[in-house]
Design a protein that fits this description.
- By secondary structure, the protein is α/β, with parallel strands linked by helices.
- It has 3 domains: 167 residues, 3-Layer(bba) Sandwich (FAD/NAD(P)-binding domain); 153 residues, Alpha-Beta Complex (Polyamine Oxidase, Chain A, domain 2), CATH 3.90.660; 86 residues, no CATH class.
- Helix content is 36%, strand content 26%.
- The chain contains 13 helices and 17 strands.
- The strands form 3 sheets. Strands 1, 2, 8, 9, 10, 11 and 17 form a 7-stranded mixed sheet that branches.
- The two termini are 38 Å apart.
- The mean pLDDT is 92.
- The site of flavin-adenine dinucleotide has 33 residues, from helix 1, strand 2, strand 3, strand 16 and helix 6.
Length: 427
């Protein structure tokens, strides 16, 4: 490949974050390169879920391959009596969807192609920055010169400097798509969280709590996933697998056919916001954009890429700006003070949940889904203003039962530090 002539922006990584920001920068008529380890059209490994209203507002509802209106959670402890209150679902009264991963990838790839983005293959290894340009060197010795580098290389970014704030909370999941002797969820139903736990013995209940995320995929197939919230250390995959099996056994449901197994999935939830004074910019999983409460990212990418690209384009068009100055403008747009304060609050909340035992968690989520429908939806999609977020959390605290209130008030570990960040987010 040799040395490439200077371009405006080089994006590293071809996951959802890399493609989304490259596409948005291309739409701003910038000259953009995208460096990735693999073919950018290689299928993505994960399944991406999103609330219906988000895709509708973003005008990308055609990118879903499944959409459910019957969306529920089970927050009782479960009972052998089907009619018991402990078995009754709460209705979410909101649509939820799954992206068609291929369509989502093509959506961004087509925008990249239309904007004549240059695709490079290679592994970014080093970078250097001077007052005019940034240069990335790959392990093969190729050099790519651009005004700005955007690191979108995922949770363990190749170049970005991420502060060490202690343990990273990791969500783990074990899932299967398959056929079962009886429908494990109602026809046409999506279950966000099934926290029923009467299939577990007393000791297991005290272990890190896990829940079932499940959905009817149509044609007699169902997707069931035993999942933990973000925890440190993470719940072992074998534990999740055993729990899913005992959950089914308890309900006399046999697995008839496994079509696909999602095994060994790890999702870091509370990656700190990167150092905002660095001269390269980040985007996506690399830049702390995963929602600490839900682990979701795609809605945020779709919402935030266009405004970030606009700010970068404006800065780059000013020829007097150095790469560091352009990166600074990028960071200010991506992580303004209000968003940083909200992030600290979300991370504080996650820290609390990491300590809650099964009973507390079920009551916590009952209080959470007792907020107005709009409030909890906007909480989960990070679309509340700071004031609204504080208000939602306060309302929830007031309505929570005493065991949850006590857990929320008792300060442990780094919780005070996170509250301090909420009050005084560092630059
Ligand atoms: C199990 C799981 C379930 C999830 N479910 C959802 C969901 O339902 N909804 C949702 O919105 N989000 C979900 N997420 C979160 C998020 O959407 C994904 O993790 C997403 O894949 C992160 O995208 P990314 O582009 O930031 O990182 P990645 O997908 O990890 O992409 C990083 C890219 O950078 C490349 N790269 C890395 N190093 C280099 C290098 N040195 N040089 C060149 N290229 C490099 C990699 O090859 C890759 O292409 C989920 C995540 C996980 C793990």
């Amino acid at each position: 490949m040799g040395t490439k002539s200077p371009m405006d922006v080089l994006v590293i990584g071809a996951g959802p974050s890399g493609l989304s920001i490259a596409a948005a920068l291309g739409q701003e008529n910038l000259e953009v390169g995208l460096l990735s380890l693999h073919d950018p059209s290689e299928p993505w490994p994960y399944t991406y879920g999103i609330w219906g209203e988000e895709v509708d507002e973003l005008g990308v509802e055609n990118l879903l391959n499944h959409r459910w209106s019957n969306t529920v959670s089970f927050l009782g402890k479960g009972s052998t009596d089907k009619n018991s209150l402990h078995n009754q679902p709460i209705q979410h009264n909101r649509d939820y969807g799954l992206f068609d991963k291929k369509k989502l990838q093509e959506y961004w790839l087509n925008q990249c192609k239309e904007a004549s983005i240059h695709f490079y293959r290679g592994k970014a290894e080093n970078f250097e920055i001077n007052s005019k340009n940034s240069t990335v060197t790959t392990t093969d010795g190729d050099r790519i010169v651009s005004k700005l580098i955007v690191d979108a290389s995922g949770y363990d970014p190749v170049f970005l400097n991420i502060p060490n704030n202690g343990d990273i909370a990791v969500q783990t999941c074990y899932g299967i798509v398959g056929e079962f002797s009886e429908p494990p969820v109602d026809k046409g139903q999506f279950v966000l969280m099934d926290y029923r736990c009467n299939h577990l013995n007393k000791n297991e209940k005290l272990d890190p709590p896990t829940f079932l995320y499940a959905m009817d995929m149509g044609n007699g197939k169902f997707f069931l996933e035993e999942t933990s919230l973000g925890l440190a250390p993470p719940v072992e995959i074998e534990t999740l697998k055993t729990r899913l099996k005992s959950r089914l056994k308890h309900r006399n449901i046999e697995i008839l056919k496994v079509e696909h197994e999602e095994h060994g999935i790890f999702l870091p939830m509370n990656i700190p916001i990167p150092d905002l004074n660095q001269s390269i910019l980040g985007f996506g999983g690399a830049a702390g954009m995963v929602h600490p409460a839900s682990g979701y990212l795609v809605g945020g990418l779709l919402r935030r890429a266009p405004s970030l690209a606009k700010a970068i384009a404006k800065a780059i068009k000013d020829k007097s700006k150095t790469p560091s100055e352009i990166a600074k403008i990028g960071w200010e747009t991506l992580w303004p003070k209000e968003l940083r304060r909200k992030q600290a609050l979300y991370q504080f909340g996650l820290e609390k949940l990491m300590r809650f035992q099964e009973g507390q968690l079920r009551y916590f989520f009952k209080s959470f889904f007792g907020l107005s429908n709009n409030q909890w939806y906007k909480f989960l999609t990070n679309t509340l203003t700071l004031k609204e977020l504080v208000n939602a959390m306060w309302t929830m605290f007031q309505r929570a039962p005493i065991n949850v209130k006590w857990g929320l008030m008792e300060m442990k570990g780094r919780e005070l530090k996170l509250l301090w960040k909420f009050l005084k987010p560092s630059v």
